[in-house]
């Protein structure tokens, strides 16, 4: 059952990826643009945000507010390359809140937005996620 579930997850994620036409000059294994609203991209962005929050000294949690660009590369799993805007929420880190229930800061003095580049490797059949690159400014 586990293998079937992993295959189904992989099929759903990969089937959402745009495959170039056979006449394309794009090389196999090259990163390809993908829909910024796809479930796989949104999930990868959230992993990037979790990694940012775990390494940040900010009192508040940040949450993804907009995914501006997404690329995916199929290499021993899925490697997502994402340009994401994240914003400070009202949830404090020590509360360990679910990001879904965290609203963005409304108080002007506490609002903050960062532009981030995340690389997220997802290997569904091994249940592994690795976020080797997090650059935010």
UniProtKB/TrEMBL annotation:
One of its GO terms (cellular component) is endoplasmic reticulum. The keyword Disulfide bond applies. It holds the Pfam family Cystatin. Keywords: Disulfide bond, Signal. InterPro entries: Cystatin-F, Cystatin_dom, Cystatin_sf. Residues 1-16 form the signal peptide. One of its GO terms (biological process) is negative regulation of microglial cell activation. Transmembrane segments: none annotated. GO terms for molecular function: cysteine-type endopeptidase inhibitor activity. Residues 26-137 form the Cystatin domain. This is Egg-white cystatin. It comes from Sclerurus mexicanus (tawny-throated leaftosser). The gene is Cst7.
């Amino acid at each position: 059952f586990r293998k079937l579930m992993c295959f189904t997850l992989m099929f759903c994620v990969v089937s959402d990826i745009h495959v170039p036409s056979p006449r394309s000059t794009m090389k196999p294994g090259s990163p390809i643009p993908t829909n910024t609203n796809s479930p796989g991209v949104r999930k990868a962005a959230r992993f990037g945000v979790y990694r940012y929050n775990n390494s940040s000294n900010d009192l508040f949690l940040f949450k993804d507010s907009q995914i501006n660009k997404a690329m995916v590369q199929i290499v021993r799993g899925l490697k997502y390359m994402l340009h994401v805007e994240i914003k400070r929420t009202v949830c404090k880190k020590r509360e360990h809140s679910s990001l879904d229930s965290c609203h963005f800061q409304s108080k002007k003095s506490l609002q903050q937005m960062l532009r981030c580049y995340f690389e997220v490797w997802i290997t569904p059949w091994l249940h592994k996620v690795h976020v080797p690159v997090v650059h935010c400014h």
